[in-house]
Amino acid sequence: MNNWFECKAKYMKLDESGKEKKVSETYLFDAVSFTEAESRIHSELEKMVSGDFSVTNISKSTITEVFADENGDRWFKAKVNFIDVDEESGKEKKTGQYMLTQANNLKDAYDAVEKNLSEIIIPYEIPAISESSILDVFPYFADAEDRVLTPEEAEAAKAAK
Asked: pTM of the full predicted structure?
């Protein structure tokens, strides 16, 4: 199971007009601890940012699954309620989880979540999807490449070690 951490960093970035602007951006890292998440964001930002940067916040994320799609240009956060019936009371019980998917628009994001959940037997509903502030996702795998792996690729990479 992945432990996702949302890491925020501030640094100077050139905007579309070529002017330097201070930005605060959020990244998602799979790590075993806050310390590892901080180490990984420093390592990644050193490659991407020319100049100084500061890590302003690291928090445990509520995201349980990440569905990457290299054709998508933005990350969308979906709330998924899994529906079960409580055996004692006979009442319907919903368990919410948050999932992140990469897509070009809201409809594509919804379709991607539906596609990735199509194999499960448990009934579910998707009550909300919104564009996320997350700029990039860094899953954990020993032989890290410069791209986000699909969950299947990430599992295969972990199993190969």
From this structure: 0.80
